[in-house]
Write a structure and sequence with these properties.
Elements (H helix, E strand, L loop, with lengths): L10 H5 L7 E3 L2 H10 L2 E7 L4 H11 L2 H10 E7 L4 H15 L7 E5 L5 E5 L16 H13 L3 H15 L14 H12 L16 H14 L2 H14 L15 E2 L7 E2 L2 E2 H18 L2 H17 L1 E2 L2 E2 L2 E2 L2 E2 L2 E2 L7 H10 L5 H7 L24 H13 L6 E2 L1 E3 H14 L4 H18 E2 L2 E7 L6 E2 L2 H18 L2 H18 E2 L2 E5 L5 E2 L10 H16 L2 H13 L1 H6 L5 H12 L2 E5 L1 H6 L1 H5 L6 E5 L5 E4 L4 E5 L5 H6 L3
Parallel strand pairs: 1-3, 2-3, 22-23
Antiparallel strand pairs: 2-4, 4-5, 6-7, 8-11, 9-10, 11-14, 12-13, 15-17, 16-17, 17-18, 19-20, 20-21, 22-24, 24-25
Length: 643
Amino acid sequence: MANRLQLEDSPYLQQHKNNPVDWYPWCDEAFLKAKVENKAIFISIGYSSCHWCHVMEENVFENKECADILNKSFICIKVDKEERPDIDKHYQEVYILLNRRAGGWPTSIFCTPENKPFFAGTYIPPESREGSIEGMGFIELTKLIADKISSHDEQLLKNADEIESFLNHKEHPKEATVLKEDFSKNFMLQVKSNYDTLHGGFSSSPKFPQVSTLGTLLVIDKLYDDKAAKAMVLNTLQNMKKGGMYDLIEGGFCRYSVDEEWLVPHFEKMLYDNALLCELYTNAYLTYQDDSFLHVAKEIADFWHNHMSQDDLMYSASDADSEGEEGTYFIYSYDEVYKLLSDNGYENIEDILEKLSISEDGNFEDKNIIRFKNTPPKEFEDIKFLLRGLRASREYPFIDKKIQTSWSSMMIKALFVLGNIDDSYKQKAIKNLDALLKSMFIEGKLYHSTLIHKTPKVEAFLEDYAFLAQALIEAFNSTQDELYLIRAQNFANSALEKFYDKGTWKFSIGEFETKAEISDNTYTSSVSIMIDVLISLSTLLEDEKYAHFAFKTLEYNSYELARRPVIYPYMLRQVLRYLKGDRVVKSNTKNLTSNAFELASLKYPFIQKKAHESEDYMICGDKSCFANTKSINKIDDIISNTF
């Protein structure tokens, strides 16, 4: 019999509607029932494409013994972190406070009947392992907690009160630090200390792309001709695109790699990863003119358009698992590929298989993930279509058809950037942006997420205002349609009114108030994106109040930024931008749009475009114009001479 989750829109909550656990969605009824019946609260947070969330469901939430304990002694609440990132952010802070390290998903939180947390875990297996409480299995742990709550254990309740007071304590920076370009030197030292010189990237396993770090290295190279920054960007991008974490057959990146060389991923594909990587590879092509980077960017955009969208709206994610196992859709046996190539008349089969990292032993659970050893076989474009054909007979991973304003805006911005090279992507971006606004901005109110073609219910958070405003500014730069700029200004004004307070930003307000992070974690900090938006508006509208709010935010966070810039790469980028200043290229609309590629390829990284009746190109700062030229090829030199 289905539980209460059957009435929810969230695909993740729907996945749990037939669990034997008596789940509640996040609601007042659940918390009131816990208090009245003096039952502990168990909060489980995850998302639809999360592999370990599926493992915990199979091993714990479908386990009758576990379910019986939960139903008897707990009030159980399921939360989709993508639908309610405000709730997730709060409990990730709880996890860090209790465990002194970052958490992950699934997130497992135990609270008193008054909803005060006292224990936080991630995946918890049903049976105990030897050792400390961290090795305690779900059955033993829940029996222990139920006993302590029913007996009003004084120490547990005292601990919960202390944790609550820690969570409510607001820390402010020790002091402001003068903003300096030298912050970038400290950033480079910290990045180099984490850098993998062999495979690229900035950690051992698991290895995430860290797009924000790479993008800031790209900016540093463009500003200072930094050979080390350039080497780190190129080596990382070249290694990531060889395959494994990057899907060579259909395009798109998986969430992260479990090994150091980007070979074995968790196979889920997230919209935000692919949006940010699409923009990064496009910018790397514009900077270094490596055609393979443009090829990757286009494949990402095409994959999302062809497989992960409907009616110009973009889905949020696809799963790692299909047919009950991780990666089944993506991997190949040696024999099936050998036969496929043989049946299609290929003669140098062993050589091709070697170049594609396909062996009889396999590189992933006796099967093969396609990855280029060095250079791809010259026949790969044809072989790729044959390999797609093998996949066509398999079950496609579950697709989460949730539409999210922030993530969709990231991809729309990337498409506009890609549209500077190929106008077809600009046209797609325009359609996507119009569809998103129509679906998520209703009667003057912006919303965060909804299932496709359903009425949204969850109101927007700071990240939605920030990324949408940023996409609108990119749309203005691309089209010179002032309506986009007006809308960006309106959303920025709303964000300032709702979320800003003397240099600090809230992520959410109202029912569940949380502070916005300034570090770039899963993706870029919404605070840093707001700084980007405010500086752009200040430049394009010639309105210094937006620069003032940007500066106050940078100033408030300057102490931490100066000490540990590696944690805040996008905000560091905005410091450099604030100090050096935007440059505005003004000319008539025809010049700006027909020469989009040349303008996007300018070396200086902080460029805005604004239509003017002039036939020439005028180069301006925030208060004055420096020079004009008839030749677009002279703009780089003119800008460099303004410093």
